[in-house]
Amino acid sequence: MNFPEKLEDFRCVTAFTPTVCTLIGARIPAQCEDTPLDAVIAEAEKKLNGEKVEKMLIFAPDACGIHLWERYPEKLAKVEAVAPLRVPTKVVMPSVTPVCFASMYTGATPAIHGIQKYERPILTVETIFNTFPEAKKKTGICAVNQCSIDLIFRKRPVTYCSTRSDAEAVKFSHFLMQDPAFDVVLNYATDYDHIMHATGPFADEAIGALDRNIAAFQQFSAWIDEYWGGYNRLLVWCPDHGAHESSPGRGSHGTDMPEDLLVYHFYSIRAKNK
What we know:
CATH topology: Alkaline Phosphatase, subunit A
Helix content: 40-55%
CATH class: Alpha Beta
Structural class: alpha/beta
CATH superfamily: Alkaline Phosphatase, subunit A
Largest sheet: 8 strands, mixed
Distance between the termini: 44 Å
CATH architecture: 3-Layer(aba) Sandwich
């Protein structure tokens, strides 16, 4: 694969948790093994003059890895236009959804958080969905029913919106954003991953799902300004892993191939309107 960064420039996905906790002023989960992303913290210091983020929209598009950006740079440009701070990120092994999202939202490696294969137990370690509510940040998770994000973060004091489709998850996220009580909304998109397994990562149907993810992200960008314009706010694009063509017309992930392990996270930090 050809990409502009060196492999050593890619930070582990575990850095996501201490970064967003630091930005919003929440305690970092006890099992976190990583440190915040310096570039993101520096950008926040510059944009927010030392103040904390007050509202946060996390968009998690499944399997949208670096393999897509290498082939479709014009689509990457659309995401980067919304969230210009690009963070090269390396996920954990095995590169499957519950393992990667568990590491992303705990800051811990699989040996510590306990999910080390494709299984979906309720995590027993601390996550941001423990420490955000502890910091009085009302949090909602909008995801398709019975997916990994809908299952492994249960038994936390957050609002769960289990939907029948990605489109419904966007609608529920929109609803929560209009409620001033909510401070953090996580929206998960499963369609690209689901479709690429059946068609291959670059099939027209799969790229259609990627395009819908980009459109949703652009819509979230507009909504955080419309509903949260009076707050310091953060928008993040943060996929769990990438994918590769495993056989003609089929896609897969779970290996240590760059296509599976390497992703880009994108951050947009916006100061409250004066």
